[in-house]
Inverse folding.
C-alpha cells in the first residue's frame, strides 16, 4: 500500500451532495444565557459546535480531522467524500457588479466596505454554527448588514503561538491573567468576560481533539490490520497529547496545527503564516533525536498537504496560504530544510492547496531560489514572491518596530501583516481610482489646464478615501457588538495581555487598509489626456467627453489614438509612470490621515482582487481607449495587452512607484510565454528576473508561464486540462474551474515572448 | 551615413535567445543576402519601408490625406510602393497601427539610452547587448562605434552576422565584440547562391580568419530548412568544415518556422517558401548526432 497515493486517490472520490440541515441550535436556551456577555456566548457556541460537529478518520490517514462541511459517504477502503456544490471563485464579484448595473448604482466612486463578511450563523461553506446572539443584537447588527459570525476574511491565527504553547498553555495564560485581574480595573466586567471567552474557546478545541483521540482509540479496537491498528493507537495518543498540552513532536505539531486551522475555518481565519519557521524546530529535534527519518517526516507533511487539498473542493479562493523563506530577526537567511520539503510536497502531489508564497532578500540562498524557479518554470505551481528589502522598511515606516517587521507574512491573499500580532482589516475598504477619474472627467470642460484636472481627480480620491474609511470604521465598530472572535484572539499576541478581543483592538497591531484598484488604467487615461488634449491639442475637451459618453461609437479613430499614441504604464516610460507614482503618493497621503476605532492606522494597498472584471463592468469608457464595461488592470499590473516592452520594463515601471507607501501590499501579475524560459539556462534566466525584481525594490510579483494556445485548448476541452493552474489575484487556481470572464481576461494579458 | 547615426528597425528588450543571459537585441536594417526562408523580410532593404497589417486597418483614409507622393492615392490596400519614399507620414496618422514604418534613424546615444534601461537585468543574468539585423556589417561605422561605446560602458557585446562582408570591414568591428553568432547556411557555394543570392566563399574565409584571430568567442548558427539545406551531403560537409575549426564553442540549430510569412504579405511581396515545414524532432536529433560526431557541441534554439 502506498499511503500517499491511496489518500490522494481517495481525495478524488468526491460526490457533490445536498448538505444535510440539522435542526438549528443555539446556546441561548440555557437559563440566564441571554444575560451572559456576548463574547462568552460566542465562545460557548464555538464549544458546542466543536463538541458536536461530525468527525471522521479515513483509512490510512496519519493527520486527522475533516472539514466541517464534509460528509463521508460509506466507509471501507474506498471512501467517498460528500461535499456541497463548489463556490465558483470570482463569480460572486461578477454577479455583484451586474446587480449594481441593473439597479443603476454604477455611478458610485467608492465601494462601501460591505464585502467579505460572510454571516456564518446560517449554513456557510465552512460549517453550521449555533446561534448565540440576542434578537436585539441581531437587529442592531442587521442595520450594517452584519450578523452572527460576520468574520473578517483575511485574519490570521497565531499558529506559531499555538504550536509553542498548545491550547492548554494559551488557556493557562488566560487563566493567570484572569486571576490577576484587578477588579477596580474591570468595573464593567468586560475584561473578565473576554478572558473567560478565550478560556472557553481553548477548552472547546481541547474537547474537539479529545473526540478524535477517542474515535481513533475505538477504531483501533476493531481494526484487523495490525499495522493500521498501531497507527490508530498512535493517532489516539497524539490527539490526546495535543488536547492536554503543547505538541512535543513534529507529528503532534502538524496535528494540532491542522485542528487549529479547522477551527479557524469557522472564525474567518485560514492562513498559516511562516509555517517553515514555527514548525522546523519540531522537525529538527525529531531528526536529531532519531525519532523520525526524513522519509517519515516527508510522508507526514504530505498527509497534511492532502488535508489542505480537501478544502479546494469547497472553494479554491480559500486563503489557505503560507509563506516560506525570508529572514531571521538578525537579518540572516531563515530558509531551512522544511522550506524545501514544503515545495517538494507540492511538486510531488500537484494541486493548488496548501498555497505557499516565498520571501526573498539579498541573502536568499541560490539553491532555494533555483528550486522556486524550477517549480514556476515547470508550471507546477505559481507562488507569490515577496521582497524583504522593501517590505520590511515599508512596515517600519508604518510604525511597526524592526524587531517585529522582520517576522512579516502575507495573509491568505497578498496583504502584509506581522505574524501572530496583527488584526489587519486588510481587504474590506476599496477605492476605485478609475471611477474617481470618471467622475472628474465629467467636468473636463471646466479645466483649462491638466493640473486643474489632476486637482479635481485628487479631490475625488480624497472623498472616496474618506467615505470608504467611514464605512469601514462603522463596520469595525459594529463587529465587536455582534461577532467577537475569542478563539483567534486568544492565539494573537496582545489580546490576553490587554484582556481584549481582537475585534475591539486587542491585537498588538491594528491597521486597516484602503485597497486602490485600477492604478494602471487611471495613469494611462491621465497620460492620454495630458498629452493629446492639453499638450498636443489633438483632441478637444468636448470632443473627448462626447466620445466617452457615446462609448466611442463612431469615433474609433479617436479611440485608437488614445490607445496607441499615448504612453502606457508597464513600458518603462517616465511620462506615465510618473503619473502612476503621483497618484499613489497622493492616495497614500490621504489614506494615512485616517485612524480606525481599534486605534490603528489606515494603510494603502494596490489591489483589485478578483474585481478587475467587476470594476470594469461598472465603469464607462475611459480616455486610455478602454470601452465601457471592459475589464481593468488587475491589482498593480499594467492594463492587459498594453505592456509591450518585455517583463523587465514592467518591473521598471512599477519600481518608480514608491512601494514604501503601499504597506498593505501590492500584487504584480506577469504573464510570460513558456518559450522565454525554455531551453538550457531557462531556470537561470528566470532566477535573474527574480533577482532583478529584488534589486529594483519591487514589493510583490506573481508569474504565469503559459501561452494563449494552451489556455484556449483548455477552454475547448476542460476535462483534458483539469490540472492546468494559473495565478489569480492572490492564489493559484485551476483554470478550467474559473468563470469565462476570468479565463478571457487571463488570455488577453500580454504574453512576453522571446 | 556616418558612424554617429544608423537605421534601426527594432530594439528587442528581454531577448533570451541571442547570446548569454537576458539581453537587448538591436536590429539594424539592410542585408546583402536574400535568403528564401528569411523570417524578417522587412530587415532586408537598407531603406525605411512600410508594413501594412491589413487586419488592423479600419479604413479611415487618414493615410491617403497624409501621403505627399500619392503612393497611398487609392488607399492603403493598394499602396503604390514604387512611389513610396518611406517618409512615414501615413504611419504617423495611422492610429490603428495598420501602417508601420520599418526603419528609424537613431544616433549611437539614442541606442545607448534604450540599452541602458535594462542594465540591472544584464547584471543579474550575465546578459548584455546583441547587434543583429538585417546585417550589422552593412552599417559598419555605426556598428563599430556602437560596439566601442557599449564596451566602454561595460556591457557584454555580441554580434549576430551572416559573415558576408569585406574582411577589413568585419575586422574593424570585431575589436569590441565578445561573442560572435555566425550564420552558416550552406556549405555548397552554388546552392548557397541559389538560396541566399550570394556565394559562401567570403563567408567561409571570414570565419576562418575570425577563428585565427583567437580573440572572439564563436557560436555558429545553422538555420535548418527541411528540403533546402538538410541533405546528408551538406550536413557531412558542415561537420567537416566546422569540426576542423578550434574556436567554435557550439553550433546552434535554428529550426525553420513560418511565422515570418504574414510579413511578406504586409510588405506586398510574395513568399516563396510556402511548402516548407518545420523540421521534426527526429530530424533535429539526427543533425545533432552528425555534428556531435565531429566533436561539435550542438544546441537547439529554445531547447538545448
Amino acid at each position: 500500500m502506498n499511503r500517499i497515493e491511496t489518500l490522494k486517490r481517495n481525495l478524488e472520490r468526491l460526490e457533490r451532495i445536498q448538505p444535510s440541515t440539522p435542526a438549528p441550535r443555539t446556546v441561548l436556551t440555557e437559563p440566564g444565557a441571554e444575560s451572559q456577555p456576548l463574547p462568552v456566548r460566542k465562545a460557548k457556541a464555538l464549544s458546542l459546535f466543536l463538541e458536536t460537529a461530525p468527525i471522521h478518520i479515513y483509512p490510512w490517514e496519519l493527520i486527522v480531522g475533516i472539514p466541517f462541511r464534509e460528509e463521508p459517504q460509506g466507509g471501507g477502503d474506498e471512501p467517498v467524500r460528500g461535499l456541497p456544490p463548489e463556490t465558483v471563485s470570482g463569480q460572486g464579484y461578477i454577479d455583484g457588479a451586474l446587480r449594481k448595473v441593473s439597479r443603476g448604482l454604477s455611478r458610485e466612486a467608492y465601494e462601501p466596505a460591505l464585502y467579505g463578511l460572510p454571516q456564518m450563523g446560517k449554513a456557510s461553506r465552512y460549517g453550521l454554527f449555533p446561534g448565540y446572539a440576542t434578537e436585539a443584537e441581531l437587529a442592531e447588527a442587521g442595520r450594517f448588514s452584519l450578523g452572527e459570525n460576520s468574520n473578517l476574511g483575511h485574519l490570521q491565527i497565531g499558529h506559531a503561538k499555538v504550536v509553542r504553547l498548545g491550547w492548554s498553555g494559551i488557556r493557562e495564560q488566560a487563566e493567570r491573567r484572569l486571576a490577576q485581574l484587578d477588579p477596580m480595573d474591570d468595573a464593567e466586567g468586560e475584561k473578565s468576560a473576554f478572558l473567560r471567552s478565550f478560556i472557553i474557546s481553548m477548552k472547546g478545541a481541547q474537547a474537539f481533539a479529545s473526540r478524535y483521540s477517542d474515535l481513533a482509540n475505538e477504531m483501533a479496537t476493531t481494526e484487523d490490520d495490525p499495522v493500521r491498528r498501531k497507527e490508530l493507537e498512535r493517532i489516539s495518543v497524539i490527539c490526546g497529547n495535543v488536547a492536554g498540552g503543547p505538541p512535543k513532536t513534529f507529528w503532534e505539531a502538524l496535528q494540532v496545527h491542522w485542528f487549529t486551522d479547522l477551527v479557524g475555518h469557522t472564525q474567518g481565519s485560514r492562513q498559516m503564516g511562516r509555517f517553515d519557521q514555527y514548525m522546523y524546530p519540531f522537525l529538527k529535534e525529531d531528526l536529531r533525536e532519531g525519532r523520525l527519518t526524513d522519509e517519515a517526516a516527508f510522508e507526514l507533511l504530505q498527509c497534511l498537504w492532502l488535508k489542505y487539498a480537501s478544502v479546494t473542493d469547497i472553494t479554491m479562493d480559500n486563503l489557505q496560504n503560507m509563506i516560506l523563506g525570508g529572514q531571521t530577526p538578525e537579518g540572516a537567511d531563515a530558509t531551512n530544510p522544511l522550506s524545501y520539503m514544503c515545495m517538494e510536497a507540492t511538486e510531488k502531489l500537484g494541486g493548488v492547496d496548501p498555497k505557499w508564497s516565498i520571501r526573498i532578500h539579498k541573502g536568499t540562498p541560490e539553491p532555494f531560489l533555483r528550486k522556486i524557479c524550477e517549480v514556476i518554470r515547470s508550471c507546477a505551481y505559481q507562488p507569490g514572491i515577496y521582497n524583504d528589502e522593501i517590505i520590511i522598511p515599508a512596515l517600519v515606516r508604518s510604525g511597526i518596530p524592526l524587531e517585529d517587521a522582520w517576522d512579516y507574512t502575507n495573509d491568505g491573499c497578498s496583504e502584509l501583516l506581522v505574524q501572530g500580532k496583527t488584526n489587519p482589516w486588510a481587504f474590506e475598504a476599496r477605492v476605485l481610482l478609475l471611477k474617481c477619474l470618471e467622475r472628474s472627467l465629467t467636468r473636463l470642460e471646466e479645466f483649462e489646464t491638466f493640473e486643474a484636472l489632476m486637482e479635481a481627480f485628487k479631490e475625488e480620491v480624497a472623498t472616496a478615501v474618506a467615505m470608504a474609511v467611514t464605512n469601514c470604521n462603522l463596520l469595525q465598530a459594529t463587529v465587536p457588538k455582534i461577532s467577537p472572535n475569542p478563539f483567534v484572539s486568544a492565539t494573537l499576541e496582545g489580546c490576553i495581555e490587554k484582556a481584549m478581543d481582537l475585534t475591539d483592538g486587542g491585537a498588538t497591531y491594528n491597521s486597516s487598509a484602503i485597497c486602490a484598484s485600477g492604478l494602471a488604467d487611471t495613469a494611462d487615461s491621465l497620460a492620454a489626456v495630458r498629452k493629446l488634449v492639453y499638450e498636443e491639442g489633438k483632441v478637444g475637451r468636448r470632443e473627448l467627453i462626447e466620445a466617452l459618453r457615446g462609448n466611442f461609437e463612431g469615433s474609433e479613430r479617436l479611440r485608437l489614438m488614445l490607445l496607441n499614441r499615448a504612453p502606457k504604464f508597464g513600458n518603462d516610460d517616465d511620462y506615465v509612470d510618473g503619473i502612476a507614482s503621483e497618484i499613489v503618493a497622493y492616495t497614500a497621503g490621504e489614506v494615512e490621515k485616517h485612524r480606525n476605532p481599534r486605534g490603528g492606522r489606515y494603510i494603502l494597498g494596490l489591489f483589485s482582487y478578483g474585481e478587475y472584471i467587476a470594476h470594469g463592468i461598472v465603469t464607462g469608457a475611459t480616455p486610455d481607449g478602454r470601452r465601457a464595461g471592459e475589464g481593468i488592470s488587475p491589482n498593480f499590473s499594467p492594463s492587459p495587452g498594453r505592456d509591450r516592452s518585455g517583463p523587465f520594463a514592467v518591473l521598471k515601471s512599477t519600481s518608480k512607484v514608491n512601494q514604501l507607501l503601499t504597506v498593505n501590499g501590492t500584487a504584480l501579475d506577469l504573464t510570460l510565454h513558456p518559450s522565454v524560459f525554455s531551453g538550457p539556462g531557462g531556470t537561470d534566466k528566470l532566477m535573474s528576473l527574480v533577482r532583478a525584481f529584488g534589486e529594483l525594490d519591487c514589493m510583490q510579483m506573481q508569474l504565469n508561464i503559459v501561452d494563449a494556445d494552451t489556455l484556449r485548448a483548455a477552454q475547448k476541452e476542460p476535462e483534458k486540462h483539469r490540472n492546468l493552474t494559473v495565478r489569480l489575484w492572490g492564489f493559484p487556481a485551476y483554470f478550467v474551474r474559473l468563470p469565462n470572464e476570468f479565463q478571457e481576461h487571463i488570455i488577453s494579458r500580454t504574453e512576453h515572448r522571446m | 551615413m556616418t558612424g554617429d547615426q544608423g537605421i534601426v528597425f527594432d530594439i528587442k528588450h528581454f531577448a533570451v535567445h541571442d547570446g548569454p543571459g537576458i539581453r537587448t537585441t538591436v536590429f539594424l536594417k539592410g542585408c546583402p543576402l536574400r535568403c528564401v526562408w528569411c523570417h524578417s523580410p522587412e530587415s532586408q532593404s537598407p531603406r525605411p519601408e512600410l508594413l501594412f497589417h491589413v487586419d488592423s486597418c479600419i479604413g479611415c483614409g487618414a493615410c491617403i490625406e497624409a501621403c505627399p507622393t500619392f503612393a497611398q492615392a487609392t488607399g492603403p490596400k493598394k499602396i503604390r510602393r514604387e512611389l513610396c519614399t518611406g517618409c512615414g507620414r501615413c504611419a504617423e496618422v495611422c492610429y490603428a497601427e495598420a501602417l508601420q514604418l520599418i526603419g528609424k534613424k537613431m544616433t549611437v546615444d539614442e541606442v545607448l539610452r534604450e540599452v541602458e534601461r535594462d542594465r540591472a537585468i544584464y547584471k543579474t543574468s550575465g546578459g548584455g547587448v546583441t547587434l543583429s539585423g538585417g546585417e550589422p556589417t552593412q552599417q559598419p561605422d555605426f556598428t563599430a562605434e556602437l560596439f566601442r561605446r557599449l564596451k566602454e560602458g561595460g556591457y557584454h557585446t555580441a554580434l549576430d552576422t551572416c559573415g558576408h562582408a569585406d574582411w577589413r570591414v568585419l575586422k574593424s568591428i570585431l575589436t569590441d565584440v565578445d561573442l560572435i553568432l555566425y550564420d552558416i547556411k550552406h556549405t555548397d557555394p552554388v546552392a548557397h547562391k541559389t538560396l541566399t543570392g550570394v556565394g559562401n566563399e567570403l563567408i567561409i574565409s571570414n570565419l576562418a580568419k575570425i577563428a585565427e584571430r583567437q580573440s572572439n568567442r564563436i557560436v555558429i548558427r545553422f538555420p535548418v530548412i527541411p528540403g533546402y539545406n538538410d541533405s546528408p551531403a551538406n550536413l557531412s560537409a558542415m561537420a567537416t568544415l566546422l569540426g576542423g575549426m578550434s574556436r567554435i564553442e557550439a553550433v546552434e540549430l535554428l529550426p525553420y518556422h513560418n511565422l515570418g510569412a504574414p510579413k511578406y504579405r504586409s510588405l506586398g511581396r510574395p513568399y516563396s517558401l510556402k511548402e516548407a515545414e518545420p523540421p521534426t524532432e527526429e530530424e533535429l536529433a539526427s543533425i545533432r548526432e552528425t555534428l556531435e560526431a565531429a566533436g561539435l557541441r550542438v544546441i537547439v534554439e529554445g531547447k538545448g
Q: What stands out?
A: The mean pLDDT of chain B is 92. The interface with chain A takes residues 12-17, 20-22, 58, 60, 62, 95-97, 117-118, 120-121, 123-127, 299-304 of chain B (CB under 8 Å). The longest helix of chain B spans residues 140-152.
